[in-house]
UniProtKB/TrEMBL annotation:
Entry keyword set: ATP-binding, Cell cycle, Cell division, Cell shape, Cell wall biogenesis/degradation, Cytoplasm, Ligase, Nucleotide-binding, Peptidoglycan synthesis
Annotated source species: Gaoshiqia sediminis
GO molecular function per UniProt: ATP binding; UDP-N-acetylmuramoylalanine-D-glutamate ligase activity
Gene Ontology CC terms: cytoplasm
Catalysed conversion reaction: UDP-N-acetyl-alpha-D-muramoyl-L-alanine + D-glutamate + ATP = UDP-N-acetyl-alpha-D-muramoyl-L-alanyl-D-glutamate + ADP + phosphate + H(+)
Function of the molecule: Cell wall formation. Catalyzes the addition of glutamate to the nucleotide precursor UDP-N-acetylmuramoyl-L-alanine (UMA).
Annotated EC: 6.3.2.9
Domain Mur ligase central, first and last residues per copy: 108-286
Domain (Mur ligase C-terminal) ranges: 309-422
UniProt similarity note: Belongs to the MurCDEF family.
Residue runs in coiled coils: none
UniProt name for this protein: UDP-N-acetylmuramoylalanine--D-glutamate ligase
GO BP term, example: cell division
Binding site for ATP: 110-116
């Protein structure tokens, strides 16, 4: 009898896993506690895959030989606890797809910048003419592509939640951009647990694999002292480039790999700002080890068109610039946004707090922010952190109200910045929904 696979969550990753499992001759059952989106329901029906929505039938689920769970379901969910007690293997979509994948994988993680770096790396490989898929937190489901496509490479963005349920999977090229406190609510508020999660990106690597990491990140530096890394290590940072790795000299980024040196002015890179220079070095290094020609790397770094909802300079209304940085769901992302704007800012912030410490922002906020518009169900932590630093702090409960309030407070030559530093789930479906509502509200001014 074929193995029984239960998939918890019927979003992009769950439905992709179901298709791959069915293709492998496994018995599949999909269960979603919420309502399944119509487009996914149609696909499950089309493939004749058994599913349920609005509930989890425990008697059915606990009979599974293998459970693939959505990264959004926390470890402390009662059903997950029961499965663990019964020693039923619970894995992620990426782990499952990895079992059937023969393509090379470039896996990118970090607290900030991973979507930008993933899309940039994908752009670079695609422009170089490689057969490449985009998966993980962006693009289509990895499992779905493994089931139905035949790529030679995958560029995969990995969140810590996905990494937590990965065991045998191996990245051929692992990229670790930075580690700053994020999602600590999922890690018992212990930073080391979160650090360990991020470092899972290099598990199972061999001397034939590559580990690209930011040498300027203090948490990564400390962690490397404790670990033996079998892969070839390629650091990048804001210092002179090592023999194998990347760095900055004057106004140029330099990337060295096996006697090949790549040089490019930081002013010619499409993505401006210090954090984006890091992202570009990481993507460039990945390109170098995959033997992409220097000219192609240069072209791709120069013509890449950023990421929607990430420091997206969206529109000017009566001289006021509106910037959509809805993707900034933690303090560190917002720090980057505030740091790279050199005009007075009306800052729209708030949402679901993930254990945020706003102390790191106080200095920048004091220098640059003239007013804060709180946009969340509970804004007391933002008010507490910045009252006395910013003269105007205004409470709002919906995007239209927030945008209108910001517009009245901003003047010609100033910036309205949506950079929430929080998750979006109190008032919005996700950060994309929040960003789209922001853009709609700005258009209606």
């Amino acid at each position: 009898m074929a193995e029984k696979v239960v998939i918890l969550g019927a979003g992009e990753s769950g439905v992709g896993s179901a298709i791959l499992a069915q293709k492998q001759g496994l018995r599949v059952f999909v269960s979603d506690l919420g309502k399944i989106k119509d487009k996914y329901k149609k696909i499950l029906q089309q493939y004749r895959i058994a599913f349920e929505e609005g509930k989890h039938s425990e008697d059915e689920i606990l009979k599974a030989d293998l459970v693939i769970k959505s990264p959004g379901i926390p470890e402390k969910a009662p059903l997950v606890k029961k499965l663990r007690e019964m020693k039923v293997p619970v894995i992620s979509e990426i782990e499952f797809a990895g079992r059937y994948n023969n393509a090379k994988t470039i896996c990118i993680t970090g607290s900030n910048g991973k979507t930008t770096t993933t899309l940039l790396t994908y752009h670079l490989l695609k422009e170089a003419g490689l057969s490449v898929g985009l998966a993980g937190n962006v693009g289509s489901s990895f499992a779905w592509q493994v089931a139905e496509k035949d790529f030679d490479y995958y560029v995969i963005e990995l969140s810590s939640f996905q990494l937590d349920d990965m065991y045998q999977f191996k990245a051929d090229v692992a990229v670790l951009l930075n580690i700053t406190p994020d999602h600590l609510d999922r890690y018992e508020y212990k930073m080391q647990n979160y650090v360990d999660s991020k470092f899972r990106v290099i598990q199972n690597q061999t001397p034939d694999d590559f580990f690209i990491y930011c040498a300027d990140d203090p948490v990564i530096r400390e962690e490397l002292k404790k670990r033996h890394i079998p892969a070839t290590c390629l650091p990048f940072g804001w210092t002179e480039a090592p023999e194998n790795g990347a760095g900055v000299k004057g106004d140029n980024i330099i990337i060295n790999w096996k006697q090949n040196t790549f040089t490019m002015s930081i002013f010619d890179i499409a993505l401006q700002g210090r954090h984006n220079t890091y992202n570009s070095m990481a993507a460039g290094l990945a390109g170098m080890v995959l033997k992409i020609r220097n000219e192609k790397i240069r072209e791709s770094l120069a013509d890449f068109k950023g990421v929607e909802h990430r420091l997206e300079r969206f529109l000017k209304v009566h001289g006021i610039e509106f910037i959509n940085d809805s993707k900034a769901t933690n303090v560190n992302s917002t720090w980057y946004a505030l740091e790279c704007i050199n005009k007075p800012i009306v800052w729209i912030a708030g949402g679901v707090d993930k254990g945020n410490d706003y102390n790191d922002l106080k200095d920048l906020v004091g220098k640059k922010v003239k007013a804060i518009i709180c946009l969340g169900v509970d804004n007391h932590k933002i008010r507490e952190a910045f009252s006395g630093i910013v003269p105007d702090i205004i409470e709002t409960q919906d995007m239209k109200d927030a945008v209108r309030s910001a517009y009245y407070l901003a003047k010609d030559g100033e910036v309205v910045l949506l950079s929430p530093a929080c998750a979006s789930f109190d008032l919005f479906e996700n950060y994309e929904d929040r960003g789209r509502q922001f853009k709609t509200a700005v258009r209606e001014l």
